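Fold this sequence, please.
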Amino acid sequence: MNDLFSNLYLQFLNLAQAIRELPDFPSLDPVEERLLNSFASLWFQGEQITVLQAMSMSSEISPTTVHRRLKSLRGKGMIVLVSDDSDNRIKYVQPGGRAENYFGLLGQCMEKARSR
């Protein structure tokens, strides 16, 4: 049974890597990918993430580094920052169109790996 799961996971990784290498897809460094995956988990649960919360989400990544990566992810169309309705000083991190596309493609990779 473990071989089945190992093969399934390795097939998924290979398919996901092929997605990441597409010419029209923005390259993500490991920190950007880690942040995006953390955000996705919270977004899936229906939670909103403020920039301040994002900057303090990981004890291994400094707030300054997170802030720089947020700017980079925004520039790549992976996230958008949306102002709070009642307080313009508060900005929420939300998925951009490219992030939704990316997660959709990764979902397709899982389906393909599973059906092989």
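Residues 35 and 66 are 8 Å apart (CA to CA). The longest strand covers residues 79-83.
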